[in-house]
Amino acid sequence: MNVSDYLENCRELSQLTTQNGWIDNETLKITPLSKEKNTMIVDVRFDEIVMEGSGCVAARIGCYGQVQLQLDDGDQVVDMLLL
Known about the structure:
By secondary structure, this protein is mainly beta. Helices cover 8% and strands 59% of the residues.
């Protein structure tokens, strides 16, 4: 799976949320910071959507962090570590 597809579908990014909300994949921004042989460090930013009990959006909170991606020889993600 390529980097953007992997990050849009992985559960680990939810650890960066502050209110246990949902990640808005439409706001997900991925900025590569460094790349070595089979490792890439990227900055991730997204909006967390917090819902009210009635089902309405209560807030959108900006979240961010950095992750280290392990890549195979075809630059497909095989593992991820939150930094």
